[in-house]
TrEMBL record:
Needed co-factor(s): Zn(2+); a divalent metal cation; Mn(2+); Co(2+)
Enzyme class: isomerase
Keyword annotations from UniProtKB, A to Z: Cobalt, Isomerase, Manganese, Metal-binding, Zinc
Superkingdom per UniProt: Eukaryota
HAMAP family: RPE
Name this protein carries in UniProt: ribulose-phosphate 3-epimerase
UniProt xrefs under InterPro entries: Aldolase_TIM, Ribul_P_3_epim, Ribul_P_3_epim-like, RibuloseP-bd_barrel
Amino acid sequence: VQPKIAPSMLSSDFANLANEADRMLRCGADWLHMDIMDGHFVPNLTIGAPVIESLRKHTDAYLDCHLMVTNPLDYVEPLAKAGASGFTFHVEAAKADKWEELVRSIKSRGMKAGVSLKPGTPVEEVYPLLEGGGDNAVDLVLVMTVEPGFGGQKFMPQMMDKVRALRKKHPYLDIEVDGGLGPRSIEEAASAGANCIVAGSSIFGADDPSLVISLLRDKV
């Protein structure tokens, strides 16, 4: 399991997205975290496949797409064509009888499959998506450490119990955390077992983003 630091592009200057992406990569980012919100599953509305397609023309980076949408299956084909690298959907939006179809659809189009859960969702909800391996299992679990939909919220330390439970059951799983992560909260997230760190305000608001990225990686 390798540390992966993924600046949240939600905190970037959207008018200069390609330049911001390049800046983050030069500062040492491993992934670029792209928050896709539909204004329905969460109140906010952000970007979609056209923006991913435009950004892909300017970078070879791993585009870690987090889908905060009501109907994730509808986004698989457009995002695959746009050049998304990872497709993480919410367990709350994927009905039990559609999970395997959704995961297989994501993987068959060359993307990594991930599942995310809100703070109020028990971690046990994602366990079925980690069983069996192969095309029926997700590659990543994203534990939200704030309520999804907006940047700049405070880290919820109690969510680390979910991370610890996942790491104990799945030693080699990519476990991602998103929300309020920065120099003050990374120790708790890393010690719980998170290896993929999404950080927005703490990186983009820093005088030296490369220093923050380096610190996060070193802690993991």
